[in-house]
UniProtKB/TrEMBL annotation:
Name of this chain's protein: Helix-turn-helix domain-containing protein
Segments forming domain DUF7347: 7-82
Domain of life where this protein originates: Archaea
Organism annotation: Halovivax cerinus
Domain DUF7351 per the UniProt entry, residue ranges: 99-299
Amino acid sequence: MTWELDPAEAFTTLGNETRLDVLRALWEADEAMRYTSLRREVAPDDRGNFGYHLSKLTGHFVQKSNDGYELRLAGEQVVRAVIAGTITANPSLPSQTVDDECTFCGAPVEFQYDDETITVSCTDCEGLVGGDLPRGTFIHYEFPPGGLAGRDAAEIVDAAHVFYDAKVIPMLRGICPICAGQIESTIEHCEDHDAIDGELCVACETRNETWAVLRCERCYYTRRVIVWFAALTHPGVISFYYDHGIDESIPVWKLPWERLQIDRHVDVDVIEREPYLFDISIRIDDDTLSVRMGGDLTVRTIEREPPEPTDVDDGDPG
Ligand SMILES: [Zn+2]
Ligand SMILES: [Zn+2]
Ligand SMILES: [Zn+2]
């Protein structure tokens, strides 16, 4: 792996208020700034250090052109991270119930926010995943503090679902949402799976027996996702849901777990191992969609039963 700037050096470069002020000023200007106007903006009482600090940023975070100084992508990312609050703030929200009920047991659902992570959990049963996570957890993933402002509890949870999609969908397609590197996916299948009603499997500490671990080979960003979610962005699956009354865009995590009004059930059978091959059947009402998916998370075949009605040729020559 090659870095344009050594990571430790990058952090050292940013450990100075004047330099962060330069990045912010350039970001707010949204165009190249001349040396004098940049100095006037950032350090009006400068006694000579300004030029030094600016030179430290120039190259990796800031570039100099004929029009003056402007942000490079790395500089923009620093400012965005500061604005999103992930670097400078660490707010938390106490547990509160949201207007939703548990897919598994019908009990009220609550959410809490701590350590830049949102956790949605059931107030009664063991939820979806256990292990080190709070009892009853369905959702436990990162959400920047910037997403809390101006939203009530339900809106925060909705936003977190959409944010999750924005990270996971590219990963399911093999692209890291952080660095655009390549994703390696590993299947985790619990061979002794036994998740009886209301409790998690003792062997794998989850309710779901097959997961995909998606990991970036470059930056090591990692997400664990229920394996059949990979099929949820396929047009054949989307149209199946659409034909059964889902007529709005719903985040992948929300579709199977929270749309209780749809009488659905999903089964995943492992047909082959090494490499894995899965048969996924999604049932809604009396209809079944059969999806064959590989361990690389690509859909191989897709079939409806009963078959999708097709236009009957009535023989009318006109
Ligand atoms: Zn529950
Ligand atoms: Zn298990
Ligand atoms: Zn990455």
